[in-house]
Amino acid sequence: MTKHHFSLLALGDSYTIGEAVPLHQSFPYQAIQLLRQKGLHFYAPEIIAQTGFTTFELAEQILHTKLNDQYDFVTLLIGVNNQYRGLPVKEYKQDVEFLLHKAIHFAAVKTERVLVLSIPDWGVTPFAQQLKKPNISKEIDAFNAHNAAIAKQYGVHYINITQHSRAIEGDSSFLAADGLHYSGKTYAYWAAEVADRIAAIIKQ
Fold this sequence. Notes:
- The protein is of the alpha/beta class and 204 residues long.
- The protein has one domain (8-203): SGNH hydrolase (Rossmann fold).
- Helices cover 48% and strands 10% of the residues.
- The chain is built from nine helices and five strands.
- Strands 2-1-3-4-5 form a five-stranded parallel beta sheet, with helices on both faces.
- The longest helix has 20 residues, at 184-203.
- It starts with 7 loop residues before the first strand and ends with a helix.
């Protein structure tokens, strides 16, 4: 009997591809490694993400990419570039709902197999300090209030990584060399959260 291999589709932006670190240190790749260590069989993750992507650009990319009809698990982490570019929160709310519909569709309408991650707070990074931009954290909270509410509304998993991104303030080992994106050490934390949820779902 052949063993079942699970698939993971990861949708997002620079935080999903792991900008400034090797791809294997990104959170989707580290999550797959952790799941394999738990004895679960997973294909390499499929990633639809690009640095700088807003919700709208991610939606466009999904619509123009030939993907499988369905995946066992789907993660969605998007919105930092909407905040960075000063795009309206109202627009984000509509877009993220559209993206969540897509994610649920890719997960064969099994809402328990979709995981939304909150937007980390880049306001505490050295890069933000140089910009001297106030209110980043407040704005991130406003965007996250929407993705959390929509995740709850649709009954998907919600993983809060924002608190962790604030707790590591001042520790450069958690950041990539650019002082803005994260290091593999940070992604390892996110990956553990994702892998634990997925492993629990499979065991149910």
